[in-house]
What we know:
four-stranded antiparallel beta sheet; mainly beta; 99 residues; three-stranded antiparallel beta sheet
Amino acid sequence: MPHAAATFNGKVIAETDTYEFVEGNVYFPPSSVDKSVFTPSELHTVCPWKGTASYNNITVDGKEVKDAAWYYPEPVTERASGLKDYVAFYKSKVDVKVD
């Protein structure tokens, strides 16, 4: 599997060789994400097959981007069960690369 990394404001905030790729998004395993840069957001969205997504803001060296990362704490279908707590990032807010 190719290497995946997410970078914000020059800092690598997630990096792994094992991830899930769903609907054009890289979902990083929880252990591969630097959660010290996260603060919880109030935003929640619902996907009919994945469930309710919880969001985080990201702050690196004083620069913040809101609602940039999301995860599914309780997936609602068997199909989505492998995404539990995996983190995805908005590519318009965080640089996500697979190589």
